[in-house]
Amino acid sequence: MGLENISELRYSLFMKEFKEYNFWVYIMFNERAQATYIGMTNDLERRVMEHKLGLIKGNSQEHNTKKLGYYEWFQYVDKAIDREKALKKWKRAWKYRLIETMNPEWKDLAAELDEILPKEGMTEEFFRKLDCGEIIVKGL
Fold it and tell me: I want to staple 68 with a disulfide (CB 3.0 to 4.6 A). Which of 9, 24, 47, 110 is the partner?
């Protein structure tokens, strides 16, 4: 293998590692909003359905967290993982306030998934502005 091929291989591996994808950090809650579950996925619609069907073992299944209360979109997995870990360390009151920035009525946002899945122009900056109330989206 020549030097030219090695350089191409390294570039290819580098680009694969940093390729943009869709990652979601989300918060599920139970009927009485007594418990929350924070997770990360590359397919929000599928993951929410798994929660609703009781397929997520452990804390989610034990506390019956089947309602989608909050979500954030990320292009890169490392950013999503960092955010998930940070949110899991938050106090309950902080998590509830975060949910209320997007979902003050504590309704199940799963019904609106078709409207929230990534579309052109939805970047991390878009979601930051959404969280800050700088952008108002119908239905949220």
Answer: 110
Both tokens of 15, joined, read: 């680009």
**Distance separating alpha carbons of residues 5 and 115, to the nearest angstrom:** 44
- 138 CB burial (10 A radius; 0-12, 13-18, 19+): exposed
Residue 7 in domain: no
Beta bridge partners of 70: 27
Per-residue pLDDT tens over the stretch 80-133: 999 999 999 999 999 999 999 999 999 999 988 866 554 445 555 655 565 565
Here the tokens at position 85 are 């870990």
Q: Is 47 contained in some domain?
A: yes
User: Domain residues for 118?
Assistant: 18-132
Q: How far is CA 50 from CA 9, 56, 71, in A?
A: 38, 6, 16
Is 138 among the domain residues? no
CATH of the domain at 128: 3.40.1440.10
